[in-house]
Design a protein that fits this description.
Elements lengths: L2 H36 L2 H16 L12 H17 L1 H12 L5 H4 L2 H32 L12 H18 L2 H10 L5 H6 L1 H15 L4 H48 L2
Helix pairs in contact: 1-3, 1-4, 2-3, 2-6, 3-7, 4-6, 6-7, 6-11, 8-11, 10-11
């Protein structure tokens, strides 16, 4: 094996070792959050049920059809809450893992990026909980009649609510992800503008796959994504200006070198 091959292999091994350490730290953070959350599992579950109970009315109750269903539902609630509590650590570990690809000046903003990641995630989850859930539940419960009553189980609701909250939290990270890709030179403002119509199509398709099969909930997820995409373009524009300046400086340097070489 050549010297370059050995260096590449060692570098790849170092990256794998760092990834392992980051994953271990993230797992520990989630477990600590899970243990803390399990002590308040009933209150957390009551909070998570809030939008559904409000839509169903005071006389309706949630059920569980299997003996261990309530126990595992509480475990899932505690795990979901543990993930939320561990968000600062999770985002910190993620951005620290990708930080070697950044310049020294850009690394100074990592703490700011971690805070923004946490804020965007919480905004997305809050949007799903306080805005999408009430309208979505009213839509589904509207199919109840005098002979047909909604009797949601704990297991089904936890699965549905956790998936929706995590999905809304993650999709609200779109501006940060695209801005980061722009900083890495993977996308440009022109590329984002040119493919805007395809992005909108992907947003509505993704919303249809993630959310329940009703137009209202899908639209309520797709519209924020479109707005976030436009915010991402603004972030990419700011980076694009910096990139153009650097390219202009390089071009000037190259032209000067060429002029010097031409001189006898």
């Amino acid at each position: 094996m050549t010297k370059e091959g050995k260096e590449k292999k060692n570098l790849f091994t170092e990256h794998l070792a760092e990834l392992r350490d980051r994953l271990i730290h993230s797992f520990i953070a989630v477990m600590i959050g899970f243990i803390i959350s399990y002590c308040f599992k009933e209150k957390l579950f009551a909070f998570l049920m809030g939008p559904l109970m409000t839509a169903m009315g005071p006389d309706n109750k949630m059920i569980f059809t299997g003996l261990p269903e309530a126990f595992f539902s509480y475990l899932k609630v505690a795990l979901l809450s543990g993930i939320v509590l561990a968000i600062p650590i999770l985002f910190y570990e993620f951005w620290m893992f990708v930080s070697p690809g950044l310049y020294k000046k850009e690394k100074k903003f990592l703490v700011f990026v971690v805070v923004l990641s946490m804020v965007f995630f919480l905004l997305g989850s809050s949007f799903g909980y306080f805005i999408v859930f009430p309208y979505g539940f009213k839509f589904f419960l509207g199919f109840s009649t005098e002979t047909i009553h909604a009797m949601p189980s704990m297991k089904e609701y936890i699965g549905f609510a956790s998936k929706m909250l995590l999905a809304f939290g993650l999709v609200f990270e779109l501006p940060l992800v695209i801005t980061f890709m722009a900083k890495m030179g993977l996308v440009t403002v022109d590329f984002l503008k040119k493919n805007r119509k395809y992005a909108i199509l992907i947003f509505f398709t993704g919303a249809a796959l993630i959310t329940p099969p009703d137009v209202i909930t899908q639209t309520m997820m797709a519209i924020p994504l479109i707005i976030l995409y436009e915010i991402s373009i603004i972030g990419a524009k700011i980076f694009g200006k910096e990139k153009k300046k650097e390219e202009e400086k390089k071009e000037k340097k190259d032209s000067k070198k060429k002029d010097k070489n031409k001189k006898p």
